[in-house]
Amino acid sequence: MPEYxxxxxxxxxxxxxxxxxxxxxxxxxxxGRQIVDLTVGEPDFDTxxxxxxxxxxxxxxxxxxxTSVTGTPKLQxxxxxxxxxxxxxxxxxKELTIGGGAKQVIYTxxxxxxxxGDEVIIPAPYWVSYPDxxxxxxxxxxxxxxxxxxxxxxxxxxLRAAITxxxxxxxxxxxxxxxxxxxxxxELEELGAVLLEHPNVYxxxxxxxxxxxxxEGRITSLATAVPALRDRILIxxxxxxxxxxxxWRLGYAVGPAAVVASINKLQSQISSCPSSVSQAAAxxxxxxxxxxxxxxxxxxxxxxxxxxxxxxxxxxxxxxTPEGAFYAYVNCSGAIGKTTPSGSKIQSDQDFVLYLxxxxxxxxxxxxxxxxxxxxxxxxxxxxxxINAGVExxxxxVRALS
Length: 402
Hints:
Largest sheet: 7 strands, mixed
Structural class: alpha/beta
CATH superfamily of the largest domain: Type I PLP-dependent aspartate aminotransferase-like (Major domain)
């Protein structure tokens, strides 16, 4: 038999770094190692009871068949009402797409719109999947480094310099994974002024963490800040992070009808529709009692404060206070060039992360996976006990360096 050769779209991408890290932690735990896992990018809370009950009721009522590609009328109404309450903008069902998680929606949006050579601007640090999604769909990722001096945020000057005649999309993620950075309304207006100069550039705003925000009021969407861009913005969101529903796999997007129609055409051939049971649960999440969000955000806030304070107390590490999401992006430049007790030199954030796993049994993800080094990402979507144990072990490991 001839040797199997994967398609080029497979060979030009890599496996998700966060998926790899989670798999490695599972392997080590299976071997009997006690690992302090600070990699997990999902809430450690259970899905709220009223949401689970809505799914149970849907099953018992026989709502287990195919639905429309664009979802049930109940879910459509819940999403459009939620989006309007958040953005102040009204969308119609023809401007709505629903998929098996926000990740699938982003992927199909790129699949529906990119041709070979089209460029996608991706500010770094970025969520690990963005560049590979672009590559898998024949596009060219244009990585724009956004360092601590700009709060890990894209500036108008950097955006203007990155745009070319081949630019098709800008991807903007806030609150950010991995930094927790959030754009102010004024910052979005400045970015919007640049985008208005380039009518062929669309913007995909990944707002999956929009409810996990530690500031006053609510975060501002680019579409709200610059309404003139409404017909060139695809707002992506879902129920995974805000409602602790990662395994339910339900995401959605609202945006230009022509873009949405292309996505839905692909969706009709990919998976027909999202799970009908998950749709019922998502409708209950978006339209029901929202107290879970308020309570969970306060828990995340206390965890964030403990993690940031503990990490900043470690000589050689520093960490900005994230404004949203449940991640901290830690500068480990003070550890680069040092030597471990075993005699190995730490030459990169990858080396440092491997040292923490080996010497301290703490699992984190290197910043190089997110496009900006030398950093590492921790998740504080875990218990205070785990966070404190992790910080203590990291401190001990850093002190052991020479």
